[in-house]
Structure formats: structure tokens, C-alpha cells
Predict the structure.
Amino acid sequence: MFPEYDVIVVGAGHAGSEAAVAAANLGSKVLLVTMNMDTIAQMSCNPAMGGVAKGQIVREIDALGGYSGIVTDHTMIQFRMLNLSKGPAMWSPRAQSDRMAFAAKWRQMLENHSNIDFWQEMVTGIVVKNKRVVGVRTALGLEIPSKTVILTNGTFLNGIIHIGEKQFGGGRAGARAATGITEQLLELGFESGRMKTGTPPRVDGRSLDWDKMETQPGDENPGKFSFTDTPKLEKQIPCHIAYTNLDVHDTLKTGFDRSPMFAGRIQGIGPRYCPSIEDKIERFSEKDRHQLFVEPEGRNTNEIYVNGFSSSLPEDVQFKALRKIIGFENAKMFRPGYAIEYDFFQPTQLTLSLETRLIENLFFAGQINGTTGYEEAAGQGMIAGMNAHFKIKEEQPLILKRSEAYIGVLIDDLINKGTDEPYRMFTSRAEHRILLRQDNADLRLTPIAHKLGVMNMDERLARVEKKLIGIKSIGAYLEKYSVLPDDINPYLLENNSAPLKQKGKLIKVLARPHLGIDGLRENLPEFDQFLNDFDSEIINSAEIHLKYAGYINKEKEMVSKMNRLEDVILSDDFDYSQIKSLSLEAREKLETLKPKSIGQASRISGVSPSDISVLLVYIGR
């Protein structure tokens, strides 16, 4: 009935969808197995993509040939670039998506790929022979053969949904939990744990008083995620901001005695950076209000997502509390919020390629690795899909360095440190974030994807080359062009910048704080005319590259020094137990994780700088 596939992907969420595309775009024959074909790439939580650091990940996925950015551009209803008041390393794109259109577009793109087949059924286990995965087993008892398997089970592994004192099995609202896989992996020697996440109630937008809330419009000139020719966003839909108050808090407290979190019925660890509303008012009792983002679920629905009001309290308490929010006095609830507990597996049990250490050709990606967020899952799925393909071809895996991509930071953190809470990406986690900007993801990663043989990258690489030429041309013009004081001083004074006393190079003017290319264009017609030959993407990247050149060059020097440690290779058969000068914890961690280099060893939790010094001395460095 089934041929032997190159790659079977279990789960069709964000990780699974990108994993399938990544392997298929390299030429592998892929089977995507899902419990429900109608929920492929469903946005189970908030209807948005991107955000702080997450937006950078989406752009990196796009630069490597993934689909998340393309799908987002086709289905978004609002776009905002966050953190524009800060430096460019912090700028992060975020889109409000049409939830139903997003999933439909993903399914369409997956079904249009000739290398991807589909099967709708629950996978209850993997087929293992001689510590190597050779296929999957389904609830019907079918065994589907495959050279590699990628597990992207999300929150479905033994998922339990909590609403007040009620609990029932489920992977999300309206979907059953997946069983069998955890139990088998435990028998094979894997270490499992429990995590928790939550979601807020959904309400009827027709029942809200929008005039009582703050309007949050999109950007006047909306950007996009993909570096390809995706459509420009037209007719944005605003979000709104509301606030809880003391009446809301007091109402919520009436349900604390029935809270599964406070009663101890939830054992899993929740995301520290996205607590439930009951957790907020308990932990931050000094605050008399909390901000809520009132977000539409799409263009053609009245369903509203109340971001910031995640709760597992009884539904009647949630309803009463919602109606105490200004603007929500007559709110009607579509469904209550809930918490969900699910199984995950410590990512320290993986290699940097996301292949498991215990079972060859078995890969994990997404929330099964202890992460949270669509973007983090999609990034892992892409790397797992590519590396499953490379494993079949007996080629070197793609391992992105921390200095190359946020995806590299994400995976490096997971494998070397593990996680005891749902892992979420932040710009602060990336020590080289000035190099990992959202504007240059294509410059960093598209040449890598092209070299690896990802489909349809010739045109993308040509765009990158055109962009590089444009950046150099703009830089050369600014270095050459001299501006007269009379032409530029009104602009300088208007921005509290010292006026020029004599003719000066335009590049030096641009380097001043609070000045930008747009302002220079308005005051210098000749410069404006020159820039008409370049699109906004090239101009913006050129401005960042030139204005922050000093910081960027210093960071590159730092990376060069750090890469010397990455270049000191450690063999898999290195016997750390024989080096008595290492601390006991370092010996145990190094023996377990088998780092590929001194650089990786230095990032393992429990391995100190003195341990690294001992290793360098031992290997003669």
C-alpha cells in the first residue's frame, strides 16, 4: 500500500509543515501524517506570526526556502515593525494573521508540492530495528516504511486540557490527544517530562464596545516577511488595547479555589514569559491593571482573541471577569480559555542536527523539544527536515552557528543546556544580534540554501546579489558625495544636530544619531534622484549597514575570535572520564553530550571556563 518514503513527518503543525517542505525541497519523497487534514498548520493559539526575535526567525526560514513567511504575507491582516525606537538589532516584524486563511494557504502550498504525500491517521509508535527507525505504526495497525522519521507532535502527546475542576484528554480544543509514542520512547530509554501552556477565551466581536478601547493600527507603510514577490498588504484591520481592573481581579479570585493550577492538578511547567491571568494577579498583586491585546482572528469572522487573558479557571468565572473589563460589558464568549499539559523530551537527547542520540534516523522538532511558539517550532522543523534528507544522502548536516542565525541560537541552547520551562526566543538570547538582523536574513542564509541545493533558489540568489550590489553602490555614493552646509544645516538643526561649518562627506552626516536616509533625501534632491534606482529593502539595509558599520565590524571580530574555539574539533570517542582535572559535573555532561567542538563544550550547562582551559591544555592548544 505504501512505498518506502525518504522522510515521514508525524504531525502537520508549524514544525511538521516546514519539515515536510524542507525535505521535499531538497528532493526527498515525504509523507506528512496528521490526525486531521483540516487542521494543517492551524494557529492553535494567537492568530499572529513574528514578534520580538520571532520575526527574525520567520525571515530566516524564508531565506532558507521555507514557506512560513510566504504564507504570512498572503494572509496577514495587519503588519507592525516592533521596537523601532531601539537599534536595528531589536527591530522585529509582526503580523496579525487571518487564522483560517493562514491554514488554508499552507495546505494549498503543501498539496501543490509533488514530493509530498499525505495520510490522515494517528501515529501510535515508531518501528525500530537495531536502534534505527525504519518507519511508523498507526492506530489501524499499519506499518509505513521510511528511511527517516521526524516527530513534531506539538501539545498532543498525552495532552490533558484543564478548565476549572474539569479535565479531559485533548491536543487542543476539539482535538483528541495522541497516545502510544511517549510510552514507546520511554521504553527505548528516552527521558520525558511534562509542560503546560494555555490559551485565552475567544469572544464575539459584535458584543464588544470598541469605542471604549485604544485602537492599535498597523504600520502606515506595511512591510512583509518574505524576500520574494509576495503581495503588498492592503486594507489593514486594527487591533485594540484594553485593560483589566481591580473588579476583574476580584472576580477572578473567586475561582482560585477551583483553579487546577493553584490546586496542584497541573504538574507541567508553564511559560514564564506568558503567564495566565490568574498567575499574573497572584504574582504581581501590587498592579491594579494588566494590558490586554484584543485581536481579530480574521477578515471574515467575528471571533476575537483576548491576548493576555489566558486562563484555566472555571468557565463561569472567566465569563464574569471578562464582563468587568471596560468595553467588554456585554461580551459573549465563543469558548473559554484553558490550560493544556503535554509530554516533551529533553532536547539534550538530540545532536545539533536534531537527530536523537538513542535511535538513528529519528528526529524531533517543535514543542516535543520543550519550546513554545509557532516560529520556534517552524525553525526547528526546517532544520530537522533538511538534516533528515542529508542523513539519507550521507552528507554533512546543516548546523547553523550562533553567529549565523537565531535558529542556530535556538538549537544550540536546547541541545547544550536543555530546558526546564517552555523555551521562547528573545533578542537577548543572541549574543551576536547586531549581525542577526531581520533585514539581512537573506544575505546570511540564502547563499547557504543555494549551495545546499534547495529548490528554486537561483532567483533568490540573484536577488541577494542585486541587494549586495545596491548596498555597495549606496555606500560608495555616500563616501564620495560632499554636502554644502546651506543644503543640509536646516535639517541638522531641526533634529538637534550640530550644523556643518564647511563642506563635508554625506557618510559622516548619516553616521550622526537621529539622522536617516529619508531625511537626507528630503533635503538633497540629487541624492533622492540617485536612490530612485533602488527599492526600499535595499535602501533600508544599506542605511543600517553604513550607519552601524563600526558596531557590525567589532561584532564580526568577536565572532572570528569565538570561531577559533568552534574550529577546535572534539572527536566522538574522546574519553572525558580519563581527565581527572575536569570537574565531576563537566565529565558527566561532556561524556553524555559529546560536543563536536570546544566552542560547543563551552556552552554546555555545568562546564566552567576552567574546564575548557583543562581541555585546551589536554589537546595541546
